[in-house]
Design brief:
With 99 residues, the chain is of the alpha+beta class. 15% of the residues lie in helices and 53% in strands. It has a 5-stranded antiparallel sheet with strand order 1-2-3-4-5, covered by helices on one side. A 3-stranded antiparallel sheet has the order 6-7-8, with helices on one face. The longest helix has 15 residues. It is globular, with a radius of gyration of 13 Å. The termini are far apart. The mean pLDDT is 94.
Length: 99
């Protein structure tokens, strides 16, 4: 299965979400940022990568059909690797602006 369209949409949505946001932390495989309100991004138990409030409430899936996600941070850079149910993986890189 080709994930190209889903992946491009994911990248565009994530860039839009993260633009102007302040990196809070990466913890327990979740990305926490602050964009006027605290937000959390990560894999749900339903196999979608979603945006919620910092407490994990709310539901805004960004991409579906995932087996696994790995989120890591080095300084102001984050790396999100998504592993698809049907095989294959993609990597999303983003650098937050220094304060």
């Amino acid at each position: 299965m080709d994930h190209t369209q889903d992946w491009q949409l994911f990248c565009n949505l994530m860039r839009g979400e993260l633009e102007g946001a302040k990196l809070d932390k990466v913890e327990d495989n979740y990305l926490y940022v602050n964009k006027k309100v605290p937000l959390r991004f990560g894999l749900s138990s339903r196999g979608d990568f979603r945006k919620t409030n910092a407490a994990g409430r709310g539901y805004q899936p960004i991409i579906h059909h995932l087996k696994k996600a790995e989120i890591s941070q080095k300084g102001q850079k984050i790396k999100i690797i998504l592993f698809f149910e049907k095989g294959g993986s993609r990597t999303f890189l983003y650098r937050f602006l220094e304060e």
